[in-house]
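During the reporting period the student researcher (J.K.) took over the structure-prediction task from the postdoctoral fellow and processed the backlog of single-chain submissions. One of the processed entries is reproduced below for the supervisory committee.
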Amino acid sequence: MKISFANLSQPTSGAVVIFALEGRKLTDSALQLDKATKGSIGRAMKASRFNGKKGQTLHILAPERSKLGRVLLIGLGKPKDLDDQVWQRAGGAAYAGLANTGMSAVSVLLDGVDGSSVKAGDAAANLAYGANLRSYRFDKYKTQLKDNAKPSVKTMKVLSRATAAARKAYTPLSKIADGVVMTRDLVSEPPNVLYPETLANRCKELTKLGVKVQILGEAQMKRLGMGALLGVGQGSIRESKMVVMQWNGGAAKDQPVAFVGKGVTFDTGGISLKPGAGMEDMKWDMGGSGVVIGLMKALAGRKVKANVVGVVGLVENMPDGNAQRPGDIVTTMSGQTIEILNTDAEGRLVLADALYYTIDRFAPKFVVNLATLTGAIIISLGNEYAGMFSNNDQLCDRLSSAGDQVSEKVWRMPMGDAYDKMINSQVADMQNIGGRAGGSITAAQLLQRFVGKTPWVHLDIAGVTWSKKDAPTVPKGGTAFGVRLLERLVSNHYEK
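J.K. obtained the following structure tokens:
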């Protein structure tokens, strides 16, 4: 879908989106359209339960004395509650409400709203951003789609009195959307297409934006002593990889900020084989790496003024004759040893080496790792929040605030010595599981053993990486949860 901005005027064809505040109070442009159509909008509201509350929609077909195909009325709620997210959700509702109606051109009439702190240009930009995010589709492998199964909307024109400001505000938002789209694409790809080598090659695309990309193969990682990461991938015919991405947008002397992602491109569980039902979902066990890659695209795309490092450990966990066994002991790059009790607790092994490597090489201000790490976090938090574990209160507070600002919410989970003792091993420095109780926490405790005193956050995104239902700006499928969250963290606190 092509999105554009133009000066406010009354369209004469296609589909039109207008707005109402709570109490059925139409905006100025909506009032004008109501007058031009002999009160058809007002009559439609009275004949429905539409009250203008936030998120409500009302379709009006072929309004009287008009050549318009249809009008979509969207509720905004109370003026004082209007913020960027409300406008983003309105944009998502505009697209979703008209995508399959047969209409190809959509005009959005956007007025400034008295009593709102959001300027008209920012409102228009955020509406377009929300529509952009909601319009995502992954249908590249559908070869027999009929026309009536494809979205009909081709263009969306946002009409306002702040066109120049809208275009300026939308430019960086569109770059963030590009990062979100990349992550969703990666997470959605099938595992026969996306595996360590091909995912590493996708990272190379970022060089066009000025990102430095280095790919480490198994020989290099072996020399570095990454026995934990390499142990996970040894049962696969696919060579494991580690990709290091660097964006140098700050001063040369500035410490970088770092993001590390788990990239298990398919997880069978290894010798500790998962049940067959639902195993197809394990294509998105590389979701953490997908977020880091998409984040680097977003930050580089808008030329963020900060030094940023993204590291992803890419493996495939397979039950081959050469696969890692329960009872094996591996030596990590840090020199610490891990007893393998369950080969399906593999993500923490990948991250142990990736985290240590990142901190050892780059000495970052902080490091955030993301991983679809445990099913236990879904039991704890469902599909609404990511689990957050950390050794630093300030970093947690900043992430929580950023999450609230972009509707990607995180919930801090406890850590402590009692949990840490649960992963002590009788034959090695630690074991890779601590039992059923507190499974997400003991996984985080293992990771903490590899970060030292560096400010660190572990985000367990197992419950929020894939959605089976639509949300206002997130169609069902890969969510790219974390791209907007971490972009906002950087822009709020670390960009000069």
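The committee noted the following: Residues 2-170 form a domain with the Leucine Aminopeptidase, subunit E; domain 1 fold (CATH 3.40.220.10).
J.K. will present the remaining backlog at the next meeting.
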